[in-house]
Amino acid sequence: MTEQATAASRRVALVTGGSRGIGREGAERLAADGFAVVINYAGNKTEAENVVAAITAAGGEAIAHRADVADEVAVAALFDAAEEAYGGVDVVVHAAGVMTLAPLAELDLDALDRMHRTNVRGTFVVDQQAARRLRGGGAIINFSSSVLSLALPGYSAYAASKGAVEAMTLILARELRGRDITVNAVAPGPTATALFLDGKDEETVARMAGQAPLERLGTPEDIAEVIAFLAGPARWVNGQVLRANGGIV
Prior knowledge:
Layout: H1 3-9, E1 12-16, H2 21-32, E2 36-41, H3 45-57, E3 61-66, H4 72-86, E4 91-94, H5 109-133, E5 139-143, H6 147-150, H7 156-175, E6 182-186, H8 194-197, H9 202-209, H10 220-231, E7 241-242
Parallel strand pairs: 1-2, 1-4, 2-3, 4-5, 5-6, 6-7
Helix pairs in contact: 2-3, 2-10, 4-5, 5-7
């Protein structure tokens, strides 16, 4: 196969929040599956470059590009960079997100605004570019959270932002009728990432790990399996929220 033919047949994934946690694991898994990967990061260039180095060392292709997911100009430039490097985008994994926990009566409204900007506006902006620019046969994979159905105290603002993500996901799937692009959301349960573990004591972590019948926290690798499924073989899964939480109800 010629280099030109290889480039034409290569699938390309853009992963927001790809420098750490679930985003990083998902990016590395997609690279192992043969995708060229664009790693989006918000501020930590070193971590993003470490992901690129790990992917290339394993024989894959990747670049890193900085963009605030809530900035429509920056996100358009992110897609431009992906198209310039690899010719187009087939899969968008929107894993970027922030979380601040507090009872509703006590939550600082600046924290609410930050979550809304990143989790809600950021999803809208990234999905808007993806809807305009993804190639046929592509997939948009958003991130919700299983806390939306668990109704855990302290999670009101975060869960509200993820409720918006689910609404956008289900509606966008229907708006893309005829484009051969799937739109789904992954809703992880408690997963051993810095986002989840930060600020929690050992007792809280152990209690939440025990909620699932599998009696453990999820791992980024567990969620990367779901990403790989939705990005690849799951062409008949569309307009769904996949709750990857080990059986927590």
